[in-house]
C-alpha cells in the first residue's frame, strides 16, 4: 500500500473479514497481498484509461487543429481568387476597343482590341448583329498585345452601324459598347 493514499478497496472490506473469522496471520497477510494486488491492477486500469483519454483528447485536438488549418487555407485561397478576379476586372477595364475601316467590304469595320494593362487578361466578348444574332469570342491577351476581330476571325462579315459587343469576365458583364456608331 502506498503511503499517503487511502486504499478504498481495503476500507470497503469489513473488518470482520480481516480480523477474526478464524484466519491465521499468514492467511490474513495473503488476503492483504491479494487485495493490494487487486488495487494495483485497478490502479493500472485507471492509468490505462487516463492514457487512452489523454490520447483521445490529443487526437481530437489534432483533428481540430487540422480543420482550423484547412479553413484558414480555404479562406486564404478564396481571398487570392477574389484578389485575382479584382485584378483581372481592373485590367479588363483598361482594354482599348477601336475600329478601322475594312479593306474588303466598304462601309464596314474591323474591331481592334489592345490590352493596355500590365497584366495578362482573359475575357469573353459577345458581339451582336443588328438582327439580334450573336457570337461569343474568348480572348486571352498578354500585356500590350493587340488583336483584331472581323470576318477572318469568325464574325459574319465585318462590323456595321448598330452592331455592338459586351465584355464579360467570370460570368459578369463589365462593359458594353457600339463597334460602329
Properties at a glance:
3-stranded antiparallel β-sheet; single chain; alpha+beta; 7 strands; 181 residues; 26% strand; 4-stranded antiparallel β-sheet
Mean pLDDT: 88
Low-confidence stretches: none
Distance, first to last CA: 102 Å
- The gyration radius over C-alpha positions equals 42 Å
Profile the largest sheet.
4 strands, antiparallel
Number of helices: 3
Strand content: 25-35%
Order of helices and strands: HHHEEEEEEE
Identify the quaternary structure here: single chain
Classify the helix fraction into a percent range.
40-55%
Q: What is the spatial order of strands in the main beta sheet?
A: 4-3-6-7
Identify the overall geometry: rod-shaped
What structural class should be given to the helix and strand makeup?
A: alpha+beta
Strand count: 7
Write a structural description.
- This protein is α+β, with helices and mostly antiparallel strands.
- Helices cover 43% and strands 26% of the residues.
- It has three helices and seven strands; from the N terminus they run αααβββββββ.
- The chain has helices spanning 8-12, 15-18, 25-93, and strands at 95-101, 109-115, 121-128, 134-141, 146-149, 164-169, 172-178.
- Strands 4-3-6-7 form a four-stranded antiparallel beta sheet. It has a three-stranded antiparallel beta sheet with strand order 1-2-5.
- A hairpin with a 7-residue loop joins strand 1 and strand 2 (109-115).
- It is rod-shaped and about 130 Å long.
- The protein starts with 7 loop residues before the first helix and ends with a strand.
- 11% of the residues are buried.
Amino acid at each position: 500500500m502506498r503511503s499517503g493514499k487511502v486504499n478504498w478497496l481495503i476500507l470497503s472490506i469489513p473488518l470482520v473479514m480481516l480480523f477474526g473469522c478464524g484466519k491465521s496471520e499468514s492467511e490474513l497477510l495473503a488476503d492483504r497481498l491479494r487485495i493490494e494486488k487487486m488495487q494495483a491492477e485497478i490502479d493500472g486500469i485507471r492509468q490505462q484509461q487516463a492514457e487512452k483519454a489523454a490520447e483521445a483528447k490529443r487526437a481530437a485536438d489534432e483533428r481540430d487543429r487540422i480543420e482550423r488549418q484547412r479553413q484558414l487555407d480555404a479562406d486564404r485561397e478564396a481571398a487570392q481568387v477574389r484578389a485575382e478576379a479584382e485584378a483581372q476586372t481592373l485590367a479588363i477595364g483598361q482594354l482599348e476597343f477601336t475600329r478601322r475601316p475594312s479593306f474588303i467590304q466598304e462601309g464596314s469595320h474591323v474591331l481592334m482590341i489592345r490590352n493596355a494593362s500590365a497584366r495578362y487578361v482573359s475575357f469573353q466578348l459577345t458581339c451582336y448583329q443588328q438582327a439580334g444574332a450573336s457570337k461569343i469570342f474568348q480572348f486571352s491577351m498578354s500585356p500590350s498585345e493587340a488583336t483584331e476581330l472581323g470576318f477572318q476571325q469568325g464574325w459574319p462579315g465585318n462590323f456595321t452601324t448598330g452592331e455592338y459587343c459586351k465584355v464579360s469576365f467570370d460570368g459578369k458583364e463589365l462593359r458594353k459598347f457600339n463597334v460602329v456608331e
